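Allow me, if you will, to draw on your knowledge of protein folds for a short while. A protein sequence and the structure tokens that stand for its backbone fold form the material at issue. I would ask you to consider whether the tokens describe a fold that such a sequence might reasonably adopt. Thank you for your consideration; the sequence and its tokens are set out here:
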Amino acid sequence: MAYLISEEAQDLLKDVKKFCDNEVREQCKEYDKSGEWPKEIYDKAIEQGYQALEVPEKYGGPGLKRVDIAALIEEMAIADAGFATTISASGLAMKPVFISGSEEQKQRMCDLVLGGGFGAFCLTEPGAGSDASAGRTTAVKDGNEYVLNGRKCFITNGAVASFYCITAITDKEKGLKGISMFFVEKGTKGLSTGNHEDKMGIRTSNTCDVVLEDCRIPASALVGKEGEGFAIAMKTLDQARSWIGCIAVGIAQRGIQEAIAYGKERIQFGKPIIKNQALQFKIADMEIKTETARQMVAHALTKMDLGLPYGKESAIAKCYAGDIAMQVSSEAIQMLGGYGYSREYPVEKLLRDSKIFQIFEGTNEIQRIVIANNVIGR
């Protein structure tokens, strides 16, 4: 793997690979068919502490650099993109609190994660996808509490989360500056979840509605200040895009591995098909795209670690990696021919898994707007 990571992370990477080879890769095949959330796999991952990779040392976590974590997340994605998505989406939910939360919120959140919990980031609504400002979920101040009402949709980890970071309107007259962010724990009265979405891909991750009906939370659940929620959400997504790119790279890497393995075994015209230059060139192009995407992810995450601006780089990483995951997965299917189109082989799953990486956490069309605004200037 072409990430330059610490010795500690190299040891962890070996452990993650062994875990994924033994507990994830083959086991997820049946769950991909059923769409059931594989609780027992995640329970084993929690025993290894994999849900807490992004917890800083200050709050009891491993304190890894972002590039170190990326190598681990990619390894998970090579085994199963849905599994990696569950782990990464929990990290997504942690980011609003790390960005603007109080010390008490940060410690409480990290305690929940270290105790085996997952998080869910709740921004998208039925009428507010790419236009996140069009949300209708409200939060009304009532004494020392807020009362939340509304519905969030397509929420990763929605039904399995221990905590939720939720955007809601606190002042409709102020537009974007009237949106606030809240930290809400599982079990809060008035918070419920809908049915698990029957998705095309990443079927081992949970996706559902999160419903808020007169959900009362303490005023201390406000993350940052009133009116800062939209800005916090955008900063969150600026960071999270690189992690989406990381998982997409893992999908592409798996496609290369499967194509090469099959190409060495499949005999046509008296020789393995991998001996044909036409297919070798396919592999070369797949590798070029995958390594380029990987290095863009690493570059964006390195800039984050250094405290340098990273918005453009993160958008490029997500956009490019999502696009090439689709391309490489399609080429892997082509390498396997008719067998690639069959569910007997794993590459058709890679294509199904890939598509969402051009859509969620900001469509690739939105990423291109972000990139253009950074390059051209507003």
